[in-house]
Amino acid sequence: MKLSLFGVGNAGTRIVDQLVGGEHGTDQPFATKNVLAFNTTPSAFETADHIPEDRQVVVGDTHPEVVAPEPSVDDGDSSASPTGDGEAAGDSEAAEEPAGDERETVRREGVAGDPELGVEVAEDDLPEIRRALDQVDDTEVDAAVIVAGLGGGTGCGVGAVLLEELKAIYEIPVYVLGVLPSSEESDQRAWTAARAVRTFVPLADAVFPIDNEVWSAGSAAVGYEAANSAIATRLSSLFAAGEREDQALSEIRMDPNDMMRTLAVGGIATLGYAETELSIESEGWFARLRRLLGFDTAEPEPQTDAKSIKQLVKRAVGSTLTLPCDVSTADRVLLILSGPPGELSRKGFETGRKLLEDETGTVEILAGDEPLTDASTVTATVLLSNVTGVPRLEAIQERAVAFQRQQDAGSTETTRPADDDQPNVTDQSAANDHGFDFEDNNLGDSSDDEPSEWETEPQEQ
Q1: Are residues 80 and 226 in the same domain?
Q2: Cα of 328 vs its chain's centroid, Å
Q3: Total domains in the fold of the chain
């Protein structure tokens, strides 16, 4: 499946950079030359090793609130994780305030975790964004993917504007890969992430949230790097399947339409992945000589029978999903098996499909194989679409509602207008909202009969 990739914010830039880097030196290109990265923090591009400079777009660099004097106190958003949007690393960490005339020379970058400011600067720079989009030929790709950290002002705000723009000009599906903040990060970032989910799910063709809580356990940078690598592996195993040059003949052919059909129900999607190493037996000199001379040699016996394929699929669906959920809520499922052709049997496919029917309770299961002659592993990738049993989203929602109520209470006490006809600050924010406002009556406790914003009804595209 050919993709155009759009990284937004620090996390989006890092993940897209890793995806593009993973393509280099392989015969499996799925996003070559169709890449852009948008950021309100120019210094974030210094770590991008594989995204060309002409594809790095700075948004809001002339806006007075984006390039502003560094505050003397922390604004509470500096707990962002490296895998998250990382806005705190560039636009909300406090710097030591200088004295005298030097005060104005110390300046910060970015939107300081403010999604409304992210929306404002993106809308102001829409002509620049549109010029950048002209570099991507949407006729060469099957779908577009926006990659962003949902807890940051850039990922949420700029990402929302970019999503609206792509949906307006593209006829291809537009998906969102969004990194959720962990529970150790601030309530502000949880509130921003919940607003981002509220905005992206109804508008995007599908949303792939990445749960930072399980993928970045611990605080060491190496842990986040390993998490990004694991995420990139799963995304590549899904979207790059079938894109290798000179690929062996597939027994159960899969094409981009299978992926798009699986994701056509919209909502939240998640990925499972598992692999089995194959033992490599050394070839004897006599057998090697016969093969070189053109004589027939016995084919090696397959190491994976139907039972082992079934176990591999079971490990994939039971693995740490990109977003842990109740797998029985999935509307549609896609299974991809990759490995040496001799290891991918039709019987193995059927046992894997039957297992997924039992685990998910749906009969809408598509499957395909990816024969890789020189592979030393057999891998199973499972895509679950429109899942609803998501504890992490419920937890983020609860934190967001509590934070919103706390902010509303503070606003009522300090900014109540003298004239009842005059709107208060909260009303003004709602009036200027970009689709991700929060109202307490809409985000009440989970005992309400109505589904939450991210548990939307499936809609055919």
Answers
A1: yes
A2: 22
A3: 2
